[in-house]
Amino acid sequence: MLHFAPSSTGSLIALGLCFLLVCIFEFANGFHDTANAVATVIYTNSLKPRVAVVWSGLMNLLGVILGGIAVAYALVELLPPDVLTPPNGNPAVPMLVALFGTALAWNLFTWWFGIPNSSSHCTIGALIGIAIGDSFIHARDLGHSVDWSQIWKVLRALAISPLLGFFLAGLLYLVIRAVVRMPALYTPPKPDEAPNPIVRALLILTCTSVSFSHGSNDGQKSIGLIMLTIIGLMPATFAMNPAHPTDRAHLAQIALSSRPLIAQYDRYSFKPDALASIDRLGTPSNPATPSEVRGDVYEILSGLRAVSANPAASGQEKHDAARLAADLRPDVEYAPYWVRVLSALCLGIGTMVGYRRIVHTLGEGIGKQHLTPAQGAASELVGAGLIASAGYTGLPVSTTHIITSGVAGTMVAAGSGINMKMLAKIALAWVFTLPVTITVAATVFYVLS
Predict the structure, then answer these.
(1) What is the mean predicted confidence (pLDDT) over 80-84?
(2) Phi then psi for 333, rounded to 5 degrees?
(3) Are 233 and 84 in contact, with CB atoms under 8 Å apart?
(4) HSE of 70 in the Cβ direction (CA atoms, 13 Å)?
(5) CA–CA gap between residue 284 and residue 251 (Å, rounded)
(6) Domain range for 250
(7) Where does the chain cross the membrane (predicted)?
(8) Do residues 200 and 66 share a domain?
(9) Percentage of the chain lying above the pLDDT 70 cut
(10) What digits encode the pLDDT tens for the residues 219-247?
(11) 158 with 82, same domain?
């Protein structure tokens, strides 16, 4: 697959398949992650399922549109530059197939058993696997050829956020119980019985906040993946940002300013590639296709990230590297509005089709007693705050893990007890997702390449 010509029939068919796979993956993301946003409002009969899903979809769309693209490209930058934009101009088909196939398969597997697994975990594991597979293909040192600083940054956010969700949701529940004296908040819902109007309004508000924050974070992840695919399909149109006209003279200036920073440190496997890209980009008269310019920009960005993460670099050097990277990114990191709308639509439709299994798990499977409105509201308010703050700082977190850990925290705070069997299933999915997706994606990428 590495030898597909950029505009050949085989290349276009493969990329069309990848585009379909990324839409299906985001559709499956709706089974898992978005279903957590509507679980409480549906379980308590505050809204009819279809109304809840449509409303959640609209809030997802708003979150995707207003949430920026920092998370989208935080994930994209986990990939080595030669995988992201192959130097020979060929489409990155093996990467896309390995990424979408692995993440989608694990998502569907866990959904089938009603386990609230994280689509974020699936995606990140597959991206790490591809980076490792690429190192084996080129016989590179894993310690220097995989951007571990970026990977640890992402994994720290994934690990810490559920713990924060557990403790903060439990604490908020205790505060609510101490301050608000309303029995309806602490009584599990009865089938087909509408809750107290005040409780209903509260739960609709928390559903809205989680849906919006989910769009601002998880919705961005599919944006980055969709962009990778359409750039492969139509590189002349989408390789460089159409709304930010490429100024080759300006790019040359940034490239030449980057050379002293990148050249002085040897602890970086892609250094020769980055320096070659600086030489090409530093000559504005050098003819180059949009894909080639994009590839050179990403090689330089990778070198600048290595400087920022190098303990030997001075504070001024790290500051200069970050400033130059910020000047380069607008040329290659962007997302048209139609891509954001497509992401939100896939999320919403997936939720509408597959929400029931996850709603049942959250409402009745995590605790020994059924979920009460106060517990649902506390876990969703905390979840919305954590997810939104992560989205605007460019850190990908898991809606699934934050909400489920929040529900568990409120169960402990209420003395309801935890269903250890279900908790063990969720924990096993959490533990095995990364090893499984890393191994499968690395293998698939290596074989296809």
Answers:
(1) 79
(2) -115, 105
(3) no
(4) 17
(5) 8
(6) 245-332
(7) 12-31, 52-75, 95-115, 122-139, 159-180, 337-355, 426-448
(8) yes
(9) 88
(10) 777 788 888 888 877 777 888 898 888 88
(11) yes
Residue at 13 is within a domain: no
> How many folded domains does the chain comprise?
2
Q: How confident is the model at residue 200 (pLDDT cuts 50, 70, 90)?
A: confident
Residue 328 pLDDT class (50, 70, 90 cuts): very high
Q: Summarize pLDDT for 266-293 with one digit per residue, the tens.
A: 766 778 888 999 999 988 888 888 888 9
* Residue 399 pLDDT > 70: yes
Q: What is the pLDDT of residues 131-144, one digit of tens each?
A: 899 888 887 777 66
- Quote the pLDDT of residue 234: 77
